[in-house]
Each structure stands twice: as C-alpha cells, then as structure tokens.
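Bug #77: duplicate submission created two jobs. Keeping one. Sequence:
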Amino acid sequence: MPPQDLFAGASAPFGAGAAPAADPPSPLLQHLNPEQLAAVTLPAGHALILAGAGSGKTRVLTTRIAWLLQTGQASPGGILAVTFTNKAAKEMVARLSAMLPINVRGMWIGTFHGLCNRLLRAHHKLVGLPSTFQILDTQDQLSAVKRLCKQHGVDEERFPPKQLTWFIAGCKEEGMRPQDVPVRDPETQKKVEVYQLYEQQCQREGVVDFAELMLRSYELLRDNDAVRAHYQRRFSHILVDEFQDTNRLQYAWLKQLAGDVEEGGRLAPRGSVIAVGDDDQSIYAFRGARVGNMQDFMREFGVQRTIKLEENYRSFSNILDCANALISHNQGRLGKNLRTQQGPGEPVRVQESPTDLAEAQWMVEEIKHLVREDVPRREIAVLYRSNAQSRVIESQLFNAGVPYRVYGGLRFFERAEIKHALAYLRLLENPHDDTSFLRVVNFPPRGIGARTLEQLQDAARGAGCSLHDAVSTMTGRAGANLSAFVALIDVLREGTQGQNLRGIIGQMLQASGLVEHYRNDKEGADRLENLDELVNAAESFVTQEGFGRDAVALPLDEQGAPLTQSPASQGLDPNLPLAAPGEMIDQDTGETLSPLAAFLTHAALEAGDNQAQAGQDAVQLMTVHASKGLEFDCVFIGGLEEGLFPHENAMSDAAGLEEERRLMYVAITRARKRLYISHSQTRLLHGQTRYNVRSRFFDELPEEALKWLTPRNAGFGLFAPDPIAAHRGNARAGRGFDMKSASFANPPVPPRKAAPGHGLRVGLTVFHTKFGEGKVLAIEGAGDDARAQIHFPRHGTKWLALGVAKLTVVE
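Kept job's structure:
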C-alpha cells in the first residue's frame, strides 16, 4: 500500500489521525503552519517528514518532542532523538528547556556516536570493555596503527598507515569484522591481518575508535535479546534528524532499536519512529551516506504517513523557483516543491566572464557595492565546488582590501600542502632557511625521525651554522637520509636554473614527491587540485606583474617597460641596482629578487595580511559542501562550467550527476535575498588556459526567474562594456532569447580547416593525455590563437587551445 501523503500542499486535507488545524489545543502549537502542525501532532506510528530547505525542521522536531511530553504520550526517558552534530543536539536541548518547565538534560538526545558511547558505558561488561574505556580520535587512531606497523614489521611503503585506518573504518561501517571481509588478493589479506592485529591491540588497551562505537553498539543490540528488548520497550518514540545522511550501519542500528517487540507471546509493532530528512539535500555519498535509506525506511517500516514541509521561510520565490526547477531533473525523488509567501524578490543574476580572474574581479566589485548598500559582509557568501577555486577569489579580495574568512577550511596559502610546497621553493631560493628545512625534511616521509632532527639541531647550534650545513656532520643511516634530502634540493635547484616560474614549481612538485604522496592519499584529490592551483597562482603572478607567461621575468619600470637601463635614466633612485635578466627589483628596498623570490614574498603577504579577526565583519568563503545548514542574505556561486560544476569525477554515471545536482540545489537554497551565479569562458587549470562549456545546470533554470548581466548571445570574448553598470540600471537581460537554442559561452563555430601546421581538421580522432580519445567538432582561429572543439566520450565537449594542448592524431 503506498504511503499516504498527509500534507503535500497548503490546500491539501489532513490525513487520517492528524490533528485539526483549527483551535490549537496548546500554546506550543501556535505559530505553526498547517504542515508543521500536522507533523508535530502525528499519532503514534512510523512516519516520514520530508523537510525542505528553510522549512523550520528544527522547530518541528523540538515542538514534536515537547508536545509528546506535555500531552503525556511519552516520558523524558522514553524519547530517543538522534542528530548528526553536537551543535544540533545542544540547540535542541536548549529549545526544549525554554519550552518546558522540566529538566531535559538527562534525555537521550545526541549524535549517533554520542548515544552509542552512552549505551556502551551502561553495558561495558557485556561488550568486553572496561568501564573507563577511552575513545581514539582520528589522530590517535593513526598513531595506534603506526605503532602496530612498526611492531609487526609492516611495510609502510606498500601499506601506508593512513590507508590502513581508512580500510579498517570502511570495514566497520559496513558491519564487517576481520573474519567477515572477503579476501580476493594478497594485498587485501595483509590489510585484514593488520585489522585483526589492530582489534587485538585496542581490546588489550581498552580503547575504541569512532567506527567501533557504532559497530559494537549495533552488535550489542543484535546479539543480546534482553538488552535489545529493554531499549525497544523504553524508547516509545524515536526521532531521527537528517535521515538522508545515514550510512548502512547507522540505519541497521536504528532498526535494532525500532524492531517489533514481543508482548503476550506475539509480536507487536513499535510505537513511533519518525524520520526527518530531505533526499534533495543528500550530498555526502563520499562519506558513506546512503540516500536510499529513506526509500528502505518507507518500505521496511511500512510507513503510511508522509508529511512534506514545503513552505520556505528563508528565500524569495525567484530563488526557490530555480531550486525547484533544477532538482526536478533528478529521477526517483520522493518529491516536494518549495514555496514561500514572501513574494518573488529580486531575479537571480547570471554573469558570464571571459576569464576566472575577471569572474573574481566582478564578484569583488559586486561585494563592495553590496557593502555600500549596508549589507553586512558576514551576510555575503561566495560558494565554490572545488577548494582550489578559492585562490583567485582570495587574491582579488586581498587586492581590494576586503576582509574575508574561509569557513570550515583554511585560506589558500595556509593549507598544509601549499605550505609544504612553498617550503620546498624557499629552500631552492635559500637552503639555509631552517624553518622550511624542518617542515619538509621528512615530508613526504623519508625515514628521518624526531631523534635524528634533535641531533642535527644540536650539531647546528654547536657549529653556529644552518641545518643544511650541519648535515655533513651527521653519520650512519640518519646522516645518509639527511644527505639524500640535501642532494635532492641541490639537484632540483640546478635543474630549475633558467626555467620560468611555472616550470620551477611543476618540477619541484614532481621531484619532491608531493604529487605522488597525495595521489596515494584517499583524501588527496583536493590537495592535488590545490597544488595545481599553486601553479596557476604563479602564472597569474607573472601575468599581473606584466610579464609574458613563458618569459623568465624581467623587472618593469613605473610605465611598464623592462628596467634594463640605468635607474636614473628611468627617473628612479640612482642607487638602485640594474636588473639582470631573470630578476626583479623591489622598488621599495632596492633588493634584487629572482622571480621565485618575488612570488614567495607575494605568497607570504597574502597569507599574513587581510586576516579577518575573531568577531570581525568578513565575507564568507566556502565550498558548497561546507555551506549545508547555513544561510546568507547574498550568495555568489562561481565556476558553473562542465567538468567543474558538475565535477568531471561525477559526470560518468547518472548517480554521480544527480548528487552534483543536489549539491547545486543546496547552494541555491543558501540564499535569502539575492543570488548570483556565474561562469567564465576560460579558466586557468594546471597552469594551462582551458576553454569551458557552461554548466548544463543553466539550461535547467527557469528563464523568468533570471536576469542576465551579460547578453547570452554574445560571441566569444564579446561582453557588455560595463557588467556592473548593466546590473545596476541597464536591464540588458537578453529576454526573448530561447535559452535552449541560444549560446551562452561558446557560439557555434562554422567548421573549417585548421591553420597550416596544426595537422587537424573536423572529423579527425585525436588523443589527449588527460581526456583520452576525442573527435574534433570544430576549429577556429589561427596561429597561437587557434582552438578546437573536441568531444571526449568520458569528459564531454571541450574547447582546447591548440598552442597549449598536447594532441596526437589517431590514425
């Protein structure tokens, strides 16, 4: 029997058993809309509440608990409420305390891990744990695995400890002990052996990790009938928040608590399990979240009541119309449509820029205008799909003197992988930089331990020299490892002489082992993107300083001419030295700087300046993932391009693309009053200019809700002369054009033969080292400006600059 939709819209009738909307029986129920009232006053039984973004979900949850307590349907000890964050649990407890004159501190309200910890403390003997068992955090767990590997001679090159911890956690989240793991090859066999040894070590020491809290609690309920029956009777009402984010083990744990109870010799169904969530906001598949749990819950629990909270109290309808239209393209949704009574509000502004730098400059200009209109900076958020995108935005905010804060992460030049890379670069410029030496001498790991470094530092102090120079005094294996590191730096320094900045950084990233290290890291994809972005930062630096991207930089005078004549003849301080080829002159100090030294100075300034102090009003920068649960008056979503958003890693299968669409849905629904979305025709990636196809998501937005700040039918490189002015007064929105047929970023190019020398023509099959084989669709331009439109089956259609892209014709 299909579940009954108790309240799908404002005019829909209540389902059987729902409380009437008129004459609310309690002050608790005042100020609830009809949908919220239906959810709060549901009769006992299993139900699903589909809570749309900004629909008052937390209010419904806490009011439901308060109503159950006030009406005597449940005691404080008979309610179990599960949330995903400690912050949400504390907020729920605080709201309940304000609603009711009772002590709610002892109630079972908390996160999955927090409640499992409480369960295991109460039954520690049954699960074989000491009453004082300790919990290992992520770093503690990694240290424990490293210690175990050393004791048992595990080859850490073949089996890095961090990967072993991920393997163990993954097995536990699937409910598998070592004996349950299917072994298909010797490598898996070794990992299972380490898993077994790790379990024995943890048991011996009386410690558990986070995944163990969940798994051992599940096993306690599964294997002990008396304990399971006790908690099933005790918790007559179970409420689960953010149900779309549950993984397999968490759902299995809930089923143990909510199973049927034996009463009088027969099985009686549980009283009430209410799952609250939004399948349209399930964006954590990479963490193991399983959106299918919502469908399984409805089927396995025989859910008869579904309530949709669709009235949004956050955003204007133009923003919600975009969110609704976009998400409607996903298949298999449980289905809901956000609405508001606040009116249409301002249209969603769409900006097309020629480059990612121009996109960032436009954002900053618009942000400055918003601030002049008295919008607090903390109410302005810039969202991006990839962490690496923040670099160019940070750079423009820095140049404009606009305070900003990276929410849930680090500013670009503060990220560990960037600091590692900069430390290597500093050693190329100055081998006596002890701080940089200590940072990377054993990163990536090369067998140089803390004791060795202590001895090296003692030797350097004794000789009054740098750590680099003291290496020659070290003997034995430690001395050999240190000497190998110094030789690596020296060879790298010699090998990069005369190279441009991009070449120096690229060679360093490979030779240092940083790229290989992060490539083998399960969570290294973002870090690799950031290292690629460091190359882009260098490229932008030399370009903005007025140098050609492939030139070994020469200094410029105030008029932009190379400073190769005498300083006095240029109207500068006559004491300034003449710049040699490949050097720059600091106009403040007269110091002669290499391009590398100048870039390192620039990076240090960006890292150390413009820091938003605690409590200071600052623009918020964050990934879309980090933005979930937050809201802002004004939101910018940048980089809406195929391969970036949706991300190329998710475009090869339907499930991945649907998760990307849910991610865009989350981004859109963060905005209260004003939303901007943008893309650029070209973007600097991996030190190369890429020609982009605008995101398919533009085609899924309603035309009537949009305002185009740049004409959609503009040719490549043709833009409104002043996009900001166009936004403020000139409504050149391009309305009347058919979005499905009009071109946004890349107009159709008539097929024609390539310029001589390229060897390409329309219809040829070519091979690209990253994108694989593709077919040439169109070619335009000549010489260094030539570009080709190529369709790659696995990566979609892309415009590539022929002077940069390494293409091979496939015979």
